[in-house]
Amino acid sequence: MVGCIIDEHRCDAHQVEVPGHDFALCVCEPNAIFNADGAGCTPCGLNELALNGACVCADGFAKETTGGSCTPSTVGAACNASTPCTAAFPYCVSSGAGDGYCSKQGCTANADCPSEYTCESNDAGRFCRRPPSGFGVSCASDADCAGFEANACETLQTKTCILQGCAQKQATCPSEWACCDYSALQSILGRLFSVCAPPSMLMSGSCPAPGVRVTP
Amino acid sequence: MNKRTLCLLAWLWCAPLFAQDAQEAKPEIPEQTELPPDPASGPTVEALSDTELEALGLDAAGPRVDTSLHFWGFADFNSSQTFRPKGAVAVAQGRHQSFYVGNLNLYFSKNLSESFRTMAEVRLTYLPNGNFTVTPDGYLQTDTSAFDYANGQVVTRWGGIIMQRIYLEWTLHRFLSVRGGQYLSPFGVWNVDHGTPVIIPAQRPLALISNLYPERQTGLEFFGRWNVNNEQTLGYHLTLSNGNGPISEYKDLDRNKAVGGRLYWEYFGKTYVRSGVSGIYGRDTVSTPAATISTSTIDLKDEINAQADSLALAADLLVKRGGLHLQTEWMSLQKRYTTEGRKVHAVLGGPVAQAASADVFSWAGYVLGGYRTSWYGLMPFATFQAGNLSLANASLPDARLGLAGFTTGLNVSPIDSVVFKIEYAYIRVFRGPSIVKYTLNALLFQAAWSF
After folding, report:
1. Which of B277, B344, B360, B403 should one mutate to test binding to chain A, selecting the residue with the greatest count of A CBs within 10 A?
2. Model pTM?
3. Could you give the dihedral angle defined by the CA atoms of residues B59, B65, B67 and B69, in that order, rounded to the nearest 10 degrees?
C-alpha cells in the first residue's frame, strides 16, 4: 500500500516480536543471541544453547579453547575415586558429598578455561570451575531454584534462577563476573537486592540499569 | 530520489486536495470572518496622489512595501486542577491546583524588500527549571537556582528560550516562495497557526503534542497558492530539511534529508472549508561521535544509538458556517528501524529484561465541534480524541498506549485580543503498561491574549 513503510514483520532477521500490546519489542528467536555491538541477532552454533545472552555448549560439549566450537568433551563429566577423569581434563573437582566433575588446573584467567567455566582458587591452587548450577533456569519462585547454587528466583524481569545477595556477601560471584547492586529498587522490592552478572549480561562493562557495579 | 519518496509524493498528489492557510499571520482571535481571495493576480489598488501620501506620512519615492520592523506576540495564563490524580498523572500534571504562565511568544517580522521578508518567533519559558525525569532511582527534577551576581547574590531561577522559527523568505512568484531557516512544519490546523488565542480548547489536542509529526524543521520550504476562481484556492508546500533528529535544529546525523509536503484546498463560499493532506519521510538518527586520536590525526566515527526511517502522514478538515465550527485532524507515524539502529537496551518494567525496539505504527486524531454565539463571542465546544501511540518518556521508549477521551468547555472572547477558556478534560489510557495506565480528570482554565 502506498504510504506504508512497515509490514507484518516488525523485527530484524533472527528476531521475534514480544507478544502483547503494552510494549513494542523484539528479542532474538529461540537459540539466538544479540550481537556484541547490540544490533541484530545471531543464531547459536552447532551443539550450542542460548543462555543469559550467550551461546553456551550443550551438556557433554565444551569449547576447550578460546574461540573454538562446541565439541564432545569430558569436561564436567562426573568423577569419583572409582571413575577418574581422563587426560584432557584430569582434575576431579570435589563438590561436597557425591560425585565431583572433571576439569583442569593451572588456569590464570577465565580465558584459559572451557567456555562458561571460570578460573577460581581452592586449597590445591587455581582450577577451572563450572558455572553455578541452575543459573539461568526458568523459575516462578525461589522454590523452583531450591537445590541449585543459583538458588534465588529473579521474578521482576528475567524470571530465572540467579545468584542473589553478592553485595551483602550472601553469595560469591564467579571470577570476572560483576556484582550488580539494585538497592535503588529497595522501595519497590522491599529488600536489598544484588545479583551476580556474567560478562555477557553487562553492557560495556556496566550492569543493566538501574544496577550499579560494586565490589563486595 | 528513492522509491519511497516517490510513493510519498504520489500519495500527496493523488489524495484529495485540501488545506490549511499556513501563513504566519499575527495571532488573532478565532472565528473571524474568512475573506475570499482576490481572483486577480493581485489586489486592486487605487493610486494616491503624492499629496495624499504625504498626508499619510508616506513618501511616494519610498519603498512600495512596508519595510518597518513589526513586533507582536501572545501569552497565556492558566490554572489546572486534577481530580484524584494518581500515578503517572500525579507525576506529570501535579497533585495540586496550580497557576502558571504557559506561553510568552514574541514575533518579529520585516519586509526587507518587495520580495524578501524575514520572520522570527521565540518562546520565553521557565524551563528547564522543574523539568523531571522518572528513573528507577526515582523522580529527578531540574533545579536552575543560581546566585544572581548583579543583585547581591540573591538566589534566582533562570529560564530558557525556545526558538520556534526564524527564516528568510523570498517570493519569486505568487506560485512560488522559498523559505530558508527553521520553520513550523506545514500540517494540520493548529501547528503553524499555534497561538493560544487561536486555539479553541485550553490545551492542544493529543495528536498535536505526541511527536507524531515533526513540529518544526530546519531547511528549505517551497510554497505557493493558486486562486482557482472567486471561491476556491489550491496551495502547496514542499519541504527539504534535516528531519527529526535530536539536534536537527543545526545538525543532520545522517545523509538522508527529510522530504515532505502539503496540499490544501480552501473554499470561500457561504460555508468556509479548508482541508489538506501532509506527509514527511526521513531518517531519524541518534548517534554520538567517537574519536580516535593519534599523533597527527583525529578519526571521527558515528556510534549509532538508534536509527529509524519514519513516515508521518496527516490530514485535516475545517468547516465553518455562521457560528458553527467543525474541525478534525488525524495524523500517523510509522517508524521502521534500520538493522544498525535497532539496538538492544534494558527495558524498564517490561516483559523482558533486554530487547530491541520493534517497528511501530502510531496514530492519533480528534474531532472538535463548537458554536460561536454573538454574545461576547461565547463558544461552547466539545472535543473527542483517540490514539494508539508510543510513550514519549525516554525511560519507556517502547511502551505503547491506547487512549481515548473528551473535553468540553467554553471559549469566550470579550474583546478581539483576549480569550478566556474553561474546560473539563477526561482522557483514559485503556491499554498500556500498568505504571502509565491512568486516567486524566482535570478542570482547566486559560486566559490567552495577543498583543
Report:
1. B344
2. 0.77
3. 120
